[in-house]
């Protein structure tokens, strides 16, 4: 038996993109069991798929869905899908159960007497809410940087040098700049304080983090493009970020 968790929260898988780490995610999910699996937004990259309607729905994506299906059947895992901005097409299923998966906008986890607010986080990003075209342009630029990074690292490999993730670095700096400009972390923790939450778990900015802001536990699950990170609640009701 693998490691057991009460809760596993994944975000920003961006399935459909060629850079999604699907096989690594499959290995992780096969190595664990859980009572509750929360797919916390940007799981399927609808933006990418809409730009590339002929992109193949790869076999590894179907294998991933079978793994999740097996978790529901074999481990009685409760699977919840809280959609984000890249997969907002899931809004049409809000409040419904699709192939055993509950589709919600956000979710509350009760843990050891504390309340954790789980949301993708895009609704607290004012750039995404008021200028979605700018967010889509940024996603397109990031996609191009990832494409360039592959060839750049092949060049470095020929010169016997270690890979250099410049796409990840630029993405992180850009997201941090936008986060500071929009006061993303302050907005989401203010919401938690005003609604009597002890903690918040989000994604969206592609940077794993575990800290306290205004006495609110702030956990960010990062992504499965660059960081391969996840938020978990173990059997002792302790929360942590794994990467």
Can you characterise this structure?
The chain has a single domain (3-242), classed as Metallo-dependent phosphatases (Purple Acid Phosphatase, chain A, domain 2). The chain contains 7 helices and 12 strands. It has helices at 22-30, 46-51, 59-74, 126-130, 132-158, 166-182, 184-194; strands spanning 3-10, 32-39, 78-82, 97-98, 101-104, 106-111, 114-119, 199-202, 209-213, 216-220, 230-234, 239-242. It has a 7-stranded mixed sheet with strand order 4-5-3-2-1-11-12. Strands 6-7-8-10-9 form a 5-stranded mixed sheet, covered by helices on one side. Strand 1, helix 1 and strand 2 (32-39) form a beta-alpha-beta unit. Helix 5 packs antiparallel against helix 6. The protein is globular and about 55 Å long. It starts with a strand and ends with a strand.
Characteristics:
Purple Acid Phosphatase, chain A, domain 2, globular, 7-stranded mixed beta sheet, alpha/beta, 243 residues, 5-stranded mixed beta sheet
The secondary-structure element order is: EHEHHEEEEEHHHHEEEEE
Mean of residue pLDDT values: 84
What is the topology, as strand order, of the major beta sheet? 4-5-3-2-1-11-12
Strand content: 25-35%
Number of domains: 1
Helix content: 25-40%
The biggest beta sheet is recorded as: 7 strands, mixed
CATH top level is Alpha Beta
Question: Which secondary-structure class do the elements indicate?
Answer: alpha/beta
Count the DSSP helices: 7
């Amino acid at each position: 038996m693998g490691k057991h968790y009460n809760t596993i929260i994944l975000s920003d898988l961006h399935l459909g993109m060629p850079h999604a780490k699907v096989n690594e995610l499959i290995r992780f999910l096969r190595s664990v069991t859980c009572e509750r699996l929360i797919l916390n937004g940007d799981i399927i990259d609808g933006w990418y798929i809409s730009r590339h309607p002929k992109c193949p729905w790869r076999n590894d994506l179907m294998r991933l869905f079978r793994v999740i299906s097996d978790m529901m059947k074999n481990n009685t895992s409760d699977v919840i899908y809280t959609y984000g901005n890249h997969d907002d097409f899931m809004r049409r299923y809000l409040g419904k159960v699709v192939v055993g998966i509950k589709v919600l906008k956000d979710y509350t986890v009760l843990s050891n007497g504390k309340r954790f607010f789980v949301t993708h986080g895009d609704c607290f990003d004012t750039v995404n809410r008021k200028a979605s075209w700018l967010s889509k342009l940024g996603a397109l630029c990031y996609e191009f940087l990832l494409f360039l990074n592959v060839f750049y690292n092949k060049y470095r490999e020929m010169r016997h040098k270690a890979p250099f993730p410049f796409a990840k670095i630029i993405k992180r700096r850009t997201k941090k700049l936008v986060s500071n400009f929009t006061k993303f972390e302050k907005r989401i923790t203010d919401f938690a304080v005003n609604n009597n939450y002890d903690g918040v778990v989000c994604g969206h900015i592609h940077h794993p983090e575990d800290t306290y802001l205004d006495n609110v536990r702030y956990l960010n699950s990062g992504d499965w493009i660059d960081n391969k990170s996840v938020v978990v609640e173990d059997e002792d009701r302790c929360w942590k970020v794994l990467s």
